[in-house]
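Re: beginner question about structure tokens

> Can someone show what the tokenized structure looks like for a real chain? I only ever see the sequence side.

Sure, here's an example I had lying around. Input first:
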Amino acid sequence: MVWGKTITAALILTAAMTAGQALAAAPDQVQQQNQSASIEPEFAPTLPPIGYVAFCARGEEECRLQGKVEKLKLTGETWDQINQVNNYVNSSIRPATDMEVYGVPEMWAYPVDAGDCEDFALLKKRYLAGLGISPDEMLMTVLLDEKGEGHAVLTLTTDQGDLILDNRRAEILRWDQTGYKFMKRQSQQDPKKWVSLQKNTTQVLVGSKAN
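And the corresponding structure tokens:
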């Protein structure tokens, strides 16, 4: 994925020069706070989001990956890259609903200049993969927010716990600090398959709001 590394490197450099924001806690601080911070348990296999099924049907590279059970080793360099990508995507993509952008209730896609929550997460995953982070360590995740509404984020499965990249906030938090109810996410064994994070998981529409 040479194009990814080249393009992403330029984007990250631009973001680092222009963002003017301090990075979040250093990895050692995250480790101190993350004694048992993995999303558990995973229940039975469940249906993928409707928009993700259509996304894979288009032959997107994200769906052709081979799943492996891995956890990202969170070094200082990797932490900086993750924060820079998160800040860049959050600041460069305009929040908009799938209906506004694509004219349909739910559409998973890589955004160009506007998109909703899952589009933000997909773009972050693509950029981080271009920087060398294994896609097997980055899982698309569907949840219910504080209002009980559908939302999507990117989960990083790291050696210091499961961290959440969210388009609604600049800070990267561990999953149990977000206030969200996690419903389901991609399986690390097979990115086309999803696993439930609740005993009873139904389809959650995540494209009806801009963020």
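Each token stands for a local structural state, so reading them left to right follows the chain. The chain has six helices and nine strands.
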